[in-house]
């Protein structure tokens, strides 16, 4: 085999970087994320993810929380200085300080927003591959560890950079609302010493508190909140559809005006030709009726559709689990 220099190996690896397959996160980082999000719930919080990008695995080895920010520019600047100072301190104590993304809390899975996309694009300017880990504290009461790792799809980032979310462009790219985000599988990793310590801490009881939490049949507040969020999303989606209906009405009205103007100009030109005069041009860009009407962006409606799908999935999942619990309870009573 031909020997390669280190620079040649690095340049080739960058050219053929494998796709991201899994996010491997340390157990300590998971506990930090859960603790931060639960302490401030229902306030939404964010934090920095630190680790390494190794081949098709994105390793998250540490994290730290961001201070709660207001809209004040001075406070926001202090937050940026805090991040830089925190990463400098981590570097001095020989802790991973390579940014690989961020984490944030959510309420009932309502995270598909334009702000999330803008944050992703800002990270992409300096980091080739980054993820956002979403944690939902409201699901912890149901015995569920609601961690989710997301990234933007390459096709969506190409469209977003072009700033063209018209129906024609989306049909050309065969792009749908399901193609905005990609969910990456999460693998929780612990060192051998931590695994041994956790084994020592395990009780001899056949069931844990998490098992009892999963048997709770009272999920009415969770379903009510999901239904309220779903109704709000349907109202927002209806408003987006009204924008498009208004656009198509204006477009139809403009096309009718253009046809009437062209018909009038052609009749006038026929009269001018009969009189031996030069015909007037049939195109007049200065005329307001020929000014194109901008088509509304479909990004917001795509994000709302994502939210609707998410809420429907959560309602379906919780309702299915409740039916299973009811049948189990019924069988126990009969016995």
UniProtKB/TrEMBL annotation:
**Cellular component GO terms, alphabetically?**
eukaryotic translation initiation factor 3 complex
Q: What InterPro entries is this protein classified in?
A: eIF3h (IPR027524), eIF3h_C (IPR045810), JAMM/MPN+_dom (IPR000555), JAMM_MPN+_peptidase_M67A (IPR050242), MPN (IPR037518)
Gene3D superfamilies associated with the record:
Cytidine Deaminase, domain 2
Limits of the MPN domain: 23-156
Q: Does the keyword Cytoplasm apply?
A: yes
Cite a single GO MF annotation.
Answer: translation initiation factor activity
| Region Disordered: start-end pairs | 263-289
Q: Point to the regions of Basic and acidic residues compositional bias.
A: 265-276
* HAMAP family named in the record: eIF3h
Provide the protein name.
MPN domain-containing protein
């Amino acid at each position: 085999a031909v020997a390669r220099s280190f620079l040649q190996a690095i340049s080739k690896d960058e050219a053929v970087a494998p796709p991201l397959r899994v996010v491997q996160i340390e157990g300590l980082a998971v506990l930090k994320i859960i603790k931060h999000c639960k302490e401030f719930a229902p306030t939404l919080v964010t934090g920095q993810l630190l680790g390494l990008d190794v081949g098709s695995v994105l390793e998250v080895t540490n994290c730290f929380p961001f201070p709660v920010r207001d809209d004040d520019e001075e406070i926001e600047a202090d937050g940026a200085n805090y991040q830089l100072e925190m990463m400098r301190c981590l570097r001095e104590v020989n802790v991973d300080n390579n940014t690989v993304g961020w984490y944030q809390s959510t309420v009932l899975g309502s995270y598909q927003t334009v702000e999330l996309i803008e944050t992703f694009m800002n990270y992409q300017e300096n980091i080739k591959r980054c993820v956002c880990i979403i944690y939902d504290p409201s699901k912890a009461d149901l015995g569920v560890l609601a961690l989710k790792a997301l990234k933007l799809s390459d096709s969506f980032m190409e469209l977003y950079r072009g700033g063209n979310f018209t129906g024609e462009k989306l049909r050309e790219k065969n792009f749908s609302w399901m193609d905005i985000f990609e969910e990456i599988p999460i693998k929780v990793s612990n060192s051998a010493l931590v695994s041994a310590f956790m084994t020592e801490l395990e009780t001899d009881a056949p069931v844990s508190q998490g098992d009892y939490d999963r048997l709770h049949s009272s999920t009415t507040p969770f379903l009510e909140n999901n239904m309220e969020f779903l109704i709000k999303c349907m109202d927002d989606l209806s408003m987006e559809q009204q924008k498009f209906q208004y656009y198509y009405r204006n477009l139809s009205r403009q096309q009718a005006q253009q046809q009437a103007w062209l018909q009038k100009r052609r009749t006038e030109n026929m009269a001018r030709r009969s009189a031996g005069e030069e015909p007037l041009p049939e195109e007049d860009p200065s005329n307001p009726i020929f000014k194109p009407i901008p088509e509304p962006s479909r990004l917001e409606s795509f994000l709302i559709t994502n939210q609707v799908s998410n809420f429907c999935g959560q309602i379906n999942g919780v309702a299915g689990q409740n039916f299973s619990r009811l049948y189990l309870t019924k069988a126990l009573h009969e016995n």
